Amino acid sequence: QLRRYVYDPSHVVEMGKIQVKENLTYEKRSVLVIDYKLKELRSKSTGLVKILWDATTGETT
């Protein structure tokens, strides 16, 4: 059963400062290449890479 959220100021997570460029973009740098795989489909081959973007949160793509 779902319950209504009760706001609590201690639930707010403080984030570090992000440097934003004039066109409102920012550069996110990779931390580590976790995995690399070569996928072959018919006559084409494509490299697949799994990258760790943020070591503190463990965000990967």
UniProtKB/TrEMBL annotation:
It comes from the Eukaryota. This is Uncharacterized protein.
